[in-house]
């Protein structure tokens, strides 16, 4: 089984078996990081970030550097020839002249697919608009698996912006492949999952509700999300919805003792800082797992072994 030369554009691009292979590699890295310190020596990663990012960009850069490789790229479109009107296709064709693998984040859906179509190197989608964020999905799956032991027979609550939240859309698609996963979708009416996600869920066990506190006792995983200001056309609509759900210790009183509280970050105010000290808060370990799974992914797409 090999992923060498492949692209990762959507959460279902890899089979369950291929994802399990990445998990095993990531676990190996976590157990013995020094064994991987020169795994990608001589390789170069290009990061093309047309949209702001902290965790995703830093974790990809840290992943490549910890593997002994190097990184080039830009962190905003104004720092690239995109500001002069260069197309994504021309940018990736140029970038592949200098690099071995590329990561792209873009505000428009399908941008990574366009890049992958013309590129001669592996392309990783680091988020395209409100569409997909597959490496965050791998991060989330690894985090759940490490904490729960498996990805089946769990009840997953997703709360907040389920309309524009690409991490939610990707995670739902991925978890639907595992047995016995039940979803509780908590959001205001205006931010319910879009119709294409509801279509994917049509044969699944799921509930839509606006009641976070009432849903809490059933949950094994709670995936909080921020209301994304950058996806709104109307400031007034954002202000009306941004504080609808705030997770605090009072809401956790009836939660399971082994509940996992996750968040793709950045957090605004949807999780109170007091929750950070609770042993069930997994969002910072989740961010660290993102680096490990991206290390495993980079190695797999480059065909590198240790």
Explain what you see.
- The protein is globular and about 55 Å long.
- It has 306 residues and is α/β, with parallel strands linked by helices.
- The strands form two sheets. A five-stranded parallel sheet has the order 7-6-5-8-9, covered by helices on one side. A four-stranded parallel sheet has the order 2-1-3-4, sandwiched between helices.
- The mean pLDDT is 91.
- Helix content is 35%, strand content 15%.
Average pLDDT: 91
Helix amount: 25-40%
- The proportion of strand residues reads 5-15%
| CA-based shape | globular
- Characterize the largest beta sheet: strand count, sense, and whether it forms a barrel: 5 strands, parallel
What structural category arises from helix and sheet content? alpha/beta
Q: What is Rg?
A: 19 Å
Question: How far apart lie the N and C ends?
Answer: 16 Å
Task: Give the H and E element order.
Answer: HEHEHEHEHEHEHEHEHEH
Question: How many helix segments?
Answer: 10
Helix/strand layout:
Layout (H helix, E strand, L loop, with lengths): L15 H16 L12 E6 L5 H12 L3 E5 L13 H8 L5 E6 L4 H8 L4 E6 L5 H15 L6 E5 L6 H10 L6 E5 L8 H6 L4 E5 L2 H4 L5 E4 L10 H7 L18 E3 L20 H20 L4
Parallel strand pairs: 1-2, 1-3, 3-4, 5-6, 5-8, 6-7, 8-9
Helix pairs in contact: 1-10, 2-10, 3-4, 5-6, 5-10
């Amino acid at each position: 089984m090999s992923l060498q030369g492949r692209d990762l554009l959507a959460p279902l691009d890899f089979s369950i078996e291929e994802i399990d292979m990445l998990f095993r590699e990531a676990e190996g890295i976590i157990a013995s990081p020094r064994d991987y310190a020169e795994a990608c020596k001589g390789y170069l990663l290009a990061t093309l970030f047309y949209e702001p990012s902290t965790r995703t960009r830093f974790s990809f850069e840290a992943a490549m550097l910890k593997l002994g490789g190097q990184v080039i790229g830009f962190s905003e479109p104004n720092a690239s020839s995109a500001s002069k009107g260069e197309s994504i296709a021309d940018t990736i064709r140029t970038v592949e002249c200098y690099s071995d693998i590329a990561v792209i984040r873009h505000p428009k859906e399908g941008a990574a697919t366009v890049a992958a179509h013309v590129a001669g190197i592996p392309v990783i989608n680091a988020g395209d608009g409100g569409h997909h964020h597959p490496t965050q999905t791998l991060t989330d799956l690894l985090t759940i698996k490490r904490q729960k032991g498996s990805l089946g027979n769990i009840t997953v609550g997703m709360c907040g912006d389920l309309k524009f939240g690409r991490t939610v859309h990707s995670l739902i698609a991925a978890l639907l492949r595992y047995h016995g996963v039940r979803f509780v979708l908590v959001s205001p009416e205006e931010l319910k999952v879009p119709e294409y996600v509801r279509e994917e869920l049509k044969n699944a066990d799921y509930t839509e509700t606006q009641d976070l506190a009432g849903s809490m006792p059933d949950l094994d995983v709670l995936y909080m999300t921020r209301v994304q200001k950058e996806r709104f056309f109307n400031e007034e609509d954002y202000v009306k919805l941004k504080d609808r759900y705030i997770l605090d210790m009072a809401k956790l009183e009836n939660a399971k003792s082994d509940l996992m509280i996750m968040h793709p970050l950045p957090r605004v105010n949807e999780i109170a800082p007091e929750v950070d000290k609770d042993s069930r808060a997994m969002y910072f370990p989740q961010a660290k797992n993102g680096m490990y799974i991206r290390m495993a992914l980079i190695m797999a797409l480059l065909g590198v072994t240790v």
